[in-house]
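Q: How do we represent a protein-ligand complex in a form that can be generated token by token?
A: Start from the inputs.
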Amino acid sequence: MRIIIDSMVCCGSSECIKACPEKAIVLHDGKAVLDEAKCDLDGICIPACPQGAIGFLEN
Ligand code: SF4
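Then emit the structure tokens for the protein with iron/sulfur cluster bound:
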């Protein structure tokens, strides 16, 4: 399981960055980018995104 952020959908609102307790997301060139090494897969960022750009991906 992974968290994925769809950069085509991300609007750069930074709401996921504020929501993430692990500080696993940063803004790069106006898009949210995930550091998977920091992510603990709690899923808090998913409902925080106003665009619905974040989700779980089975792998
Ligand atoms: S799943 Fe949790 S730890 Fe991972 S990026 Fe989202 S809020 Fe941060």
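The chain has a mean pLDDT of 97. The beta strands are 2-5, 25-28, 31-34, 54-57.
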